[in-house]
Automatic annotation (TrEMBL):
It holds the Pfam family CbiA. Residues 6-54 form the CobQ/CobB/MinD/ParA nucleotide binding domain. Transmembrane segments: none annotated. This is CobQ/CobB/MinD/ParA nucleotide binding domain-containing protein. Gene3D superfamilies: P-loop containing nucleotide triphosphate hydrolases. InterPro entries: CobQ/CobB/MinD/ParA_Nub-bd_dom, P-loop_NTPase.
Amino acid sequence: MSYNIAVAGKGGTGKTSLTGLLIDILLKENKKPILVVDADANANINEVLGVEVEETIGQIEKKLI
């Protein structure tokens, strides 16, 4: 089963922190890969999760065009 989950709200309300915690819980419960897309101009969910960004959507788009 798959889910699409979006987290939205005003700036400074803890969206990134909430998303990081939610991802952590989902990984522990399901043990399946999760695709995370951070559409924030200051995209930093990778820092919260402690992972390195290999490629951005913008970089992938440039390769396809």
